[in-house]
Write a structure and sequence with these properties.
Helix content is 43%, strand content 22%. It is an alpha/beta fold.
Length: 308
């Protein structure tokens, strides 16, 4: 179908007369009439009862007008998207993080970011820290939100750190005063995230500094599963402060090392050796500002610095 003919038909309907439509399209009236005739022949429909001074759409013409407007609007949208893609202003930003990290920070971020960046869409991927870095190296992700320590061959932008918490059964001897020192966990039954997750890496590093070797009895990437086992008295669960209870009755305490909070320094990581597409360049600054504001708001509401 010739889109010029379709546009001519819609313009005639909007202008009300052939002369006004011809003037708007900057063509002669005979040329305009030829376009309408060609369109009617292609469709096998009579769109107008006449093409005189006053136009009257047939019932078929009225129905076709509705579809024509929708098709032209869609074509304009496709054209605008193509132009945006060509200019690097549109595309899909692929971002990875641990499940609890995505749940803590992204629900309130994605729609706001997409609204501020028309033509840009965010796609999220769940994985542990080790897998996320491999995905960046293979070009599967633009960014990963994970542990900031090490990974010097990646470009990074720090975001506020997250403290580690200790979950135990009610009335447990651990954390009665609101804190648990890593040194007191020697020999304790531990419920932890699997290797490769930022929370586990931060906890293992604290244990090495304290010279503590715990007894791991269960590993799970699902924080609420760890909480459920802690509630049942199976051990001491180590989780990030992004943990959200789903009704588990657990005692919560801050994890400390030599009277200082054990935190998980986080950052936005990307491959600095590969140029980012233009549509992804604003993500690190936008997300960093979002997390900073979000944690400040949560800390203010709760009156405690590390729990978010």
């Amino acid at each position: 179908m010739n889109f010029k003919h379709l546009q001519t038909f819609v313009t005639i309907c909007e202008c009300g007369t052939v002369s006004r439509a011809a003037a708007q399209l900057r063509i002669t009236q005979p040329a305009l009439s030829r376009r309408v005739k060609a369109l009617q022949e292609e469709l096998g429909l009579t769109l107008f009862d006449n093409l005189g001074r006053r136009l009257a759409l047939t019932s078929e013409g009225e129905e076709f007008l509705r579809h024509s407007r929708a098709l032209l609007a869609q074509a304009e949208a496709v054209l605008a998207t193509g132009r945006a893609l060509g200019g690097g202003r549109a595309g899909v930003v692929r971002i990875g993080g641990a499940p609890h990290t995505l749940a803590a920070f992204f629900p309130s971020f994605v729609s706001k970011y997409e609204k501020q960046n028309p033509g840009v869409r965010v796609r999220l991927f769940e994985a542990g820290a080790a897998k996320l870095l491999t995905m960046i190296e293979h070009g599967e992700l633009h960014f990963a939100v994970t542990l900031a320590l090490g990974h010097d061959h990646f470009s990074k932008r720090p975001i506020p750190p997250v403290q580690l918490l200790v979950l135990t059964a009610p009335r447990s001897r651990y954390g009665r005063d609101g804190t648990v020192d890593v040194g007191t966990l020697r020999g304790a039954p531990l419920l932890v995230m699997p290797p490769g997750y930022a929370t586990r890496e931060a906890f293992d590093a604290a244990c090495r500094i304290a010279g503590v070797e715990g007894s791991i009895v269960f590993e799970s990437a699902a924080l609420n599963t760890l909480a459920a086992f802690a509630e049942a008295g199976h051990g001491v669960a180590i989780v990030p402060a992004t943990f959200r209870s789903k009704g588990e009755r657990v005692q919560i305490a801050r994890l400390e090392l030599r009277r200082k909070p054990v935190t998980m320094p986080l950052a936005i990581l990307w491959d600095g050796n590969k140029p980012l597409p233009r549509f992804a360049e604003s993500f690190p600054e936008s997300f960093s500002a979002h997390v900073t504001a979000l944690m400040r708001e949560r800390n203010h509401k709760r009156g405690r610095l590390a729990v978010c």
